[in-house]
Amino acid sequence: MAARQNHPDATTADTDALLHRLRARARELGFAAVGVTDTDLTAAETYLFDWLADGRHGEMEWMARHGTLRSRPAELEPGTVRVISARMDYLPEPAAEPWSVLADGALGYVSRYALGRDYHRLMRRRLQHLARWLEAEAGPLGYRVFTDSAPVMEKPLAEKAGLGWIGKHTNLLSREGGSWFFLGEIYTDLPLPVDEPATAHCGSCRACIDACPTGAITAEGELDARLCISYLTIEHPGPIPEELRALMGNRIYGCDDCQLVCPFNREANATAEADFHPRQGLDAPRLVELFAWDEDEFLARTEGSAIRRIGHARWLRNLAVALGNAPTTGEVVAALRARADHPEPLVREHVAWALARHDPG
Predict the structure, then answer these.
(1) End-to-end Cα spacing for the chain
(2) Per the annotation, does 251 bind a ligand?
(3) Is there a binding annotation on residue 16?
(4) 77-101 pLDDT tens trace
(5) Active site residue: 38, 104, 148, 275, which one?
(6) Spatial distance between the Cα atoms of 317 and 240, rounded to a whole number of angstroms
(7) For tag attachment on the chain, is the N or C end more exposed, with fewer CB atoms within 10 Å?
(8) Residue 187: phi, psi to the nearest 5?
(9) Does the annotation count 148 as an active-site position?
């Protein structure tokens, strides 16, 4: 954040009008909604520290590395008094129907958020535009933008800013927009008026809890990342626990089941951003074709994609599990045998498991 500024006093009418114009400018930049909150995350901090103490973050050591910086915005960016939370929809309308992909064991399922280009650069660029516009309207101010790029408690901040509530699956939910959206923030020293926090509307519904393939949603609003397929396929660096592999089906990068069954996603808005549309046929890819990619092809085909960051070995690990769960065919077995002597132990182990699934004897 730039050096903290002393902002002149403004009337309520002035700041309300500024916030109204800010929302309009945000819509022009492709954001579906914008809200403002203060920096008090006391309740969320308590939950975070309990969650970490229980070890439910698995091997995501970065979750605990920053102490209170994550839950106290003014410690991360001194001078911060407000957080502007912004939502951008990502559901790609032209993508293959998710349930049909999940039902076909010859195909691989990639989480809808990762089908197109990595959202970080686009979101950051738009948030920078919005922050510069605000500075031009309000005068010099301190600010810093975030797109999942620093220790920021995005969902609690968005909930306090009125963008939605944290559902039983721990994703943020909006009554009019479901949960298919990215979040980004602007930390600022400009004392804008704050929005009313969102209230929960899940009621007695537990569709997300019942749908989780691995039982990772252990109670309402309680997620054990160590069981979550998104964690296992993306964040987890080592072998996937054997007792969870068969439960993963053909999910090769992330998992959307808890979102797919959510009633609030029935009318979710499709994205207007072409960058989030499917690339490389990843909305319904054939597993054996993906498994044949060497590292150079993997890097070329995932350029600009969030998938690239897991690396080729983890990509093959995930695909080997999916192939182990696929219907037994000569093509599947041949593909696995071709990787049986892979130089990476991580890949070899999962290939051996998959082959044993097709030939138990």
Answers:
(1) 62
(2) no
(3) no
(4) 999 999 999 999 999 988 999 999 9
(5) 148
(6) 8
(7) C
(8) -85, 130
(9) yes
Q: What's the pLDDT tens digit per position in 121-173?
A: 999 999 999 999 999 999 999 999 999 889 999 999 999 999 999 999 999 99
Say whether 228 counts as a known binding-site residue.
Answer: yes
> Which amino acid belongs to residue 345?
P
- The residue assigned the tokens 């890097």 is 299
Cα(236)–Cα(115) distance, integer angstroms: 20
Nearest-angstrom CA–CA distance, 215 and 248: 11
Confirm whether residue 205 is marked as ligand binding.
yes
For 356, residues 6+ apart whose C-beta sits below 8 A from its C-beta are none
Query: Model-level pTM?
Result: 0.94
Query: What is the distance, to the nearest Å, from the Cα of residue 128 to the centroid of all Cα atoms in its chain?
Result: 21
Closest CA to 282 of 292, 290, 291, 272: 290
Residue matched to tokens 């004392």:
191
**pLDDT tens digits for range 9-42:** 556 668 889 999 999 999 999 999 999 999 999 9
